Amino acid sequence: MSDDARRLHPVDVVIVGGGWAGSIMAKEMTEAGRSVVMLERGPYRSTAADGAYPASIDELEANFRYKLFQDLSKNTVTIRNNSQQTALPYRRMAAFLPGEGVGGAGLHWSGVHFRMPPDDLRLRTRVIEKYGAKFIPEGMNLQDYGVSYEELEPFFDKAEKVFGTSGEAYMVKGQVVGKGNVFSPSRSDHFPLPALKDVYTAHLFRKAAEEVGFHPYSLPAANASRQYINPYGAQMGPCNFCGYCSGYACYMYSKASPNVNILPVLRRHPLFELRAGCHVLKVELDADGRRATGVTYTDPDGRVVTQPAEMVILTAFQFHNVRLMLLSGIGRPYDPVHNEGVVGRNFVYQNVTTSNVWLDRSIDTNQYIGAGGGGVAFDDFNSENFDHGPLGFVGGSPVWVNQAGVKAIAAARSGGPPGTPRWGSAWKAGVIDTYRHSLRIDAHGANMAYRDVYLDLDPTWKDAYGQPLLRMTFDWKDNDIRMNRYVVDRIGDVAKAMGARRVNLTKREFGKPFDTRQYQTTHLGGGAVMGNDPGTSALNRYLQSWDVHNVFVIGANAFPQGTGYNPTGMVAALAYWAAHHIRTTYLSHPGPLAG
Amino acid sequence: MLASAILAVTVCGPSARAQEPARDDVIARGEYVARAADCAACHSVPGEAPFAGGMAFHLPTGTLYAPNITPDRQTGIGQYSEAEFSRALRRGIRRDGTTLYPAMPYPSYARLTDEDVHVLYVYFMQGVKPVVHVVAQDGMSWPMSMRWPLSIWRMLYAPDPKAVRQDMDRRTFADPLVARGSYLVEGPGHCGACHTPRALTMQEKALTAEDGPLYLSGGDAVDGWRPVSLRGENRTGLGRWNEQDIVRFLATGRMPLGAAFGGMTDAIGHGTQHMTDEDRLAIARYLKTISPAAPALARGWTYDPAVTDALHAGDVSARGARAYVDSCAACHRTDGHGYPTTFPPLAGNPVVMDPKPDSLIRIVLEGNTLRATRQAPSAFVMPGFAARMDDSTVADTVTFIRAAWGNDAPAVTVTDVARIRRTLSPEHPPVSVPMN
What we know:
The structure holds two protein chains of two kinds. Chain A is α/β, with parallel strands linked by helices. Chain A contains 15 helices and 24 strands.
């Protein structure tokens, strides 16, 4: 296809994908004096157009017609539970909701903004230290990231300052400074903004969790608790808890997004060009496949165009990055039979279940109020914060009330407590009771990586451009189900302390396969992971392809296994980390940064 | 060196452009003066070539089109000598001898120094790209279509640059910064063109601070926006803005007590955001020397929490309170303080308490975009409520805002709102969609 493609004027760096990772990398590369073209396949988006109040807070358009999400009629994935099945295309948004358009998933996200726990970064080493190598279940590809918390700390800090993150620190420079998460590591600085106030349900949850003996803390949220100007000079408004975060462009300018926090500055930079409506087909490699020469894409008029560049940075959504590597021949594709090859390996999801608690009818839970990143959590059963020895599973799960604002259609669809009729006056009474007097508690668990869970190119299905779709082979494993069931029982303890009138604990069931029809989370990870061993990772610890040194791949695709936390904070920190090493080393000495 | 350059230009006249190119720094200084004088506000159309003219001014007497002032010899000002350029700028006389419409603020530009006129000339001749663009014929109706009466107007009302010069030399300022500020505001900045009231015969009632209390005391509506007083009135002027507030406002369009809207958005966008901090400070210091138009207007605004307390207690019985809480309070808060520099406060805001409610009504109806500037890259958009609120709801809401939190401006009638609504453009496509 590239033979007859139009060749454009070369640039220093081409970036594929206009979300958080792309915007951060573009900002960093222009700061380093490099010319940058950022390609985004979706449309331009800005708060003025997509967040225009009040038209933008239309639940039907945003959450049920998926205004800001990927157009699945052009490109999607196929899914199956195991390699004996034939995968079928994911045609309707449900289990996960990848974004599209300038800002990417960073425009429609909720705003929970975590740092990765230090133990999660070296989970394989830690588990072996604590429980021995035999503790790792057969078939689990447990790995380290190859980078430590101490190394990433400056970049977590930078990302929080750019995002305007609200939270309360526990420890700064080794000193206990506040009522933050006691399990969180020391920080170099406080959060740039104070924590959001607790909504009422979060307040009740905090009290009850303390009573039970857990250690609740305010979720770190990239929803600004007050107006804020970030280090780039970009301004945010304050969050007013309207509840229209996830799925929406925030009309208050208070939810961090590339659009609000980076692009207004970046787009004025003379070395930067943003091209929307450009769908990248492949990364072009030189004759021996060791160096990228640019990318080929279709422009908004459908013409196939080649953009030559000295460096290619893939910053599309997790699975699009993996697919582009497979389509371009970057790195060895994963072979699940022999557990060899790296691109497609260690594909992971997040292990989330939501339980419901009904309080006394005298208590209004005001679920319409909310902030996407706000709430109260405890980490007593996350990461390596507890002894897994007697429990016999790897991984953990934070538990939280993250009341993000329950809207009318969602409230009606979720119905009443189990057993409520699906129509009639009993249904109405159940919906009203649930909407007015209940709350939701999530177990937001990690999903481990397994040998037979992976991504590859589908042999049958193709996208609108004639290229094979990416195929997901995914199912839940007993280790992860045991972890979920253990942690959800702890939710039962807290619900009791809250004086629950009724509790519906939702646990993952053994033998019940992954169901794509239910929304779970868009936190997909792995598939092109980072690490120190080219035999088990597609990227080195600087997110540089082991095989094609001028290709960097930034995203949750780099996570070797799942984590209990939301991924965006880690993705942003990894972007700044990779950018730092590109700027300080790679640009003056192009070549492998690790070897 | 500079003097000889001026001499050379003066001697060579129209053929100056054929001479060796001016030094870059002279062109840059000319560009700076062009920004301080906000030439682009009228002579550039957004999205078109700079200074190619064509911007339409819809006046009750017809439509004026700003001319092409690029150095194109046929359709622009390429044939102007520096003397002719100076005469047009400072005396309002075109190269053909006819008089310019006083939409061109030559009564203010009369105060421009020779040096500023020179660098402006060099900039327009050598720093601006010539563009062939024939601007539409003015569509003024008789008798305003005749230019000869303009000459009489000019003789009656426009100051003589020589007299102005003497006047400027006579005035003394203890602080050189105030002197610079007076020059920028009364001269190139032509702030009074909007912010000073005009007589029936359209001349500004005062051209300098020395001309009395009407100077900068608030002008008549421009494009439907009512320019506020820039004098020291506590409630309706700049009485509570300090120097740094003004500096920040001129640089970014936003400061803790307010945000730019209407025509000021362009004045900041083309002009003041590009000025030096020192010049912005000069403007601020000078403005702070101007006393309230009347002593009674010095009466101070103080915050009154009564309305806030009522709203917090769930009492929305006051006229307009319910509409305010539903549609305005998310950003401007129930306490009226807003979120300074992001969403401006309404409590104590001079625009809110202006005797004429036109701007406030218009903002509610058509919204406003606080544009990005060099120092403030984020734009903020307030939506318009014209499609959602009828005239009586707008009148109630605006009345509520004008009387809450210690504000003391009179109520607004449905007729006021209807009058403004009639003047809304049928649609308001954004000039450019903000980048955030």
